[in-house]
Amino acid sequence: MSNRIDVKKTYKLFINGAFPRTESGRTYEVKNAKGVFIANPCLASRKDLKDAVVAARAAQHGWNKATAYNKGQILYRLAEMLEGRRAQFVDEIVTVTGVSKAKAEKEVTDSVDRLVWYAGWTDKISSLSGALNPVAGPYYNFTIPESMGVIAAIAPETPSLLGLIDSIAPIIVGGNTVVVLASTKAPLSAISFAEVIATSDVPAGVINILTGKKDEITPWMASHMDIDGLDISGLGAKKHAEVKTAGTENLKRIYSFKSADPGRILAFMENKTVWHPIGL
Amino acid sequence: MNFYGLVDGTEASLKKYLGSLSGVDQVGADARAAMLATRSIKTTSKRWAIDTAITMVDLTTLEGADTPGKVKALCTKAVRPDPTDSTVPSVGAVCVYNDMVEIARTHLDLIGGQHVGVAAVSTAFPSGRASMAVKIQDTKDAVNAGASEIDMVIDRGAFLSGRYIEVFDEIVKIREVCGTKAHLKVIFETGELVTYDNVRKASFLAMAAGADFIKTSTGKVAPAATAPVVLVMLEAVRDFYAMTQVRIGVKPAGGIRNTKDAIKQLVLVNETAGPEWLKPSLFRIGASALLNDLLMQRMKMDDGYYASPQYVTID
Is A252 on the interface with B (CB under 8 A)? Predict the structure, then answer.
């Protein structure tokens, strides 16, 4: 029998590339499907959201300037790191949600594949959506999609890992930075995914992960003047109208999605049109 | 000149005066500054502090790339920091290089900013490495162009070598050039003075030589206005007041970028020099980015939600 004392993990937030505890000092209990206590993750406060947005805003210019090739490499690196820690993620999903090991394995595999898929879009999205417009003059007229800025996202409750990846990857593919609220009931995958991010050359502040209550944080996200867009895919349909009303005050783009497709990337991009003179 | 009766202008008397100063307890100063930084200022006090801090800002642009257009934009912002809210007070002054003084003064007068001063950085700012003749001419230029405040730098090389009388004479001469037209702020560049003892010594030297304000830094050297350094300087003006019944102002500059930092400075002032110093004529904050953060915090207090930098001007 071992005499070792358990080395238990402290579940913290992920803001600006670091793992701070919530400034509020609050936590909440996570239990598995049978009601057995599993962990005490942070219950993020309004100030944590503010700190995350400040970090995301500071990181946005640099991330947007990174080449599509570089962004793609970094997203692919996320997939590599996730693949390498597959066992831990499978274990956490099984522990928290109580699904079979095979089902958890499939979710992790899908998550890795999804990241690789998104990584491929970084240098293709502008060809898909951009255009060379015909104009009546000696000009080339281009339309290209550009990043929107800082986007917040509410990740769905389940699947906790794949849903999180769908909440993060399409947003950062377009050159935005993101503040994501993880699944409330199953936040362990999100916190472990932050460790994957921290070892994947993702610049600090590009991805920020909060854990906490949707009802508490979503209205703050909607009214925050420095968040340009909001993905409410993980929010119950009943709350959509309320959040959209709060967001109109500051012209925030608010969308929810049912699937992973290029439209999800383009939703948080804005078209920019450039006129370029042709030699007369 | 009698220099408040503290020195008679000779090197011997200056050495005796500076030699009589007590040393600074470094550990104590650090601990005191750290303790005062933990005070929590909320609601109505915070609102008062934000508005007071805005009136104390010396809105600064000291870049090689400054243009008349940028200086004019800065002046407009100085008079009316938030164009959408007329209850926001004007800042204390704009702080520019010498050649921009006339542009700033003219533009301020044009837009109804007569109450906003123009501070000019003189005497071969930021290094202070020029002949005395050049430094005097530099200051004359600024005063003639309409500067109401002169921010001079001391010769740190002379100070650190112990040639205090040179530093003293320099301040006296620049003070004469300023005459009654301009206030004199003396910049120590505390990041280069190494010890708190030196900061205290420089403070008393400058005050006796006729400074109206003592200022921490140029903003070009880090560390700049750290809390313990400001604490030491505030203690110096407090002690100087006890000796002479004259209140000298303090201006921290450099590194004060957000509302929290600014409020910490106000706490230091209140708890060290006293509430008499909590006004723009005796306390200024040299800053550029700070004003936007003060405005954003003010908006947040009014609107109830976090503001965005996209809603305040860039410079």
Answer: no
